[in-house]
Specification:
With about 325 residues, the chain is α+β, with helices and mostly antiparallel strands. The protein has 14 helices and 7 strands. Strands 1, 2, 3, 4, 5, 6 and 7 form a 7-stranded mixed sheet that branches. A hairpin with a 4-residue loop joins β3 and β4.
């Protein structure tokens, strides 16, 4: 459940943008022309031949590696199918090429490439786009491509990790929090039974920041999790109370992570309701409202964190 991100991303088009992209046959800036993409099509064809083994067999193999701690969690195919459905609807209602919708309105680029540059000319992304043009089933091609990419637990910008939490540097004087479920306990990572562990991890993180990042004055984060009491109780009240909706996060896990279970599967009820809403919407402006929970942006002075964790809040949960 990779659900909170410290992504610093370039601005992306808003859903209610009035500009249109024109015919799908017209290449958008940042995408290769037919001639430029010839090599990547050949590469993707070779990739397709090398993945003739059923993707389910590949998934089973990678899940065994995951249990051994070699790679990060493998997400279910339905998670990608859901994003493809959303991208198709964006393409239809927004009159834009599907490859544009895939880049700007899904988390696929991050899953495949690993950075947050969202470069339409990236060789890995170009290979993915070139490959699906010849595929009968876009969902199968997408998932096979995903399974053969590294599954990073945290982005390379992370400075230090403490259990389920990590931080990266934000703007000058600021750190940004990440959350990723690394807790294999039978109880959920945000359950009352595991709250003491989460608070202990955050206490260690804050101590590390205090000793190693003396210029930091602020802590910030963005996630759908700030809608949940079980998550908000882990932080200073002023931090959680600062929440405002973070709009246009269609590329990032702070939005899409709400559809994943802690084991990498999907939350079926949420996915079913979301898919139904997407199919029913008739304008671009309505699509953003299809998500059950909106990502929330929060921030507070680092001093509030020092004071909060100095009070040993984990003791309330037996820590």
């Amino acid at each position: 459940m990779a659900v909170e991100s410290a992504d610093q991303q370039r601005p992306r088009p808003r859903l209610n943008a009035t500009a249109r992209y024109g015919s799908p046959a017209v290449p958008r800036r940042g995408y290769r022309t037919h001639f430029d993409a010839h090599r990547t099509r050949r590469q993707s064809a070779a990739f397709g031949r090398s993945t003739a083994v059923d993707w389910r067999q590949s998934l089973c193999s990678q899940q065994r590696e995951t249990c051994q701690g070699a790679i990060g969690m493998i997400y279910a195919k339905e998670f990608f199918d859901l994003q493809l459905q959303f991208a198709r609807r964006v393409s239809e209602l927004g009159a834009m090429p599907l490859q544009v919708a895939l880049l700007d309105y899904t988390n696929l680029y991050v899953r495949f490439v690993g950075d947050r540059q969202f470069d339409g000319d990236d060789p890995i992304w170009s290979t993915y786009l070139a490959g699906f043009r010849g595929e009968v089933d876009l969902g199968d091609w997408t998932y096979r491509f995903y399974l053969h990419r590294p599954h990073r637990v945290q982005p390379p910008s992370v400075i230090a990790t403490f259990g389920c939490f990590a931080y990266a540097m934000g703007k000058p004087g600021q750190i940004r929090l990440h959350f990723h479920n690394t807790d294999g306990h039978r109880h959920g990572p945000l359950s009352a039974e595991r709250s003491a562990s989460r608070l202990s991890e955050l206490t260690s993180l804050v101590h590390h920041v205090r000793s190693q990042q003396v210029a930091v004055k602020e802590v910030a984060g963005v996630s759908w999790l700030y809608n949940l009491t079980a998550y908000k109780r882990l932080f200073p009240e002023s931090y959680a109370a600062s929440a405002t909706v973070a709009e246009n996060r269609f590329r990032n896990m702070p939005l899409w992570g709400q559809f994943l279970s802690r084991h990498g599967g999907i939350r079926k009820d949420a996915v079913t309701a979301f898919a139904r809403r997407v199919s029913d919407r008739t304008t671009m402006d309505e699509l953003a409202q299809c998500f059950p929970l909106q990502p929330l942006a929060v921030s507070a002075p680092i001093e509030a964190f020092f004071e909060f964790y100095a009070q040993n809040p984990a003791a309330r949960f037996g820590g």
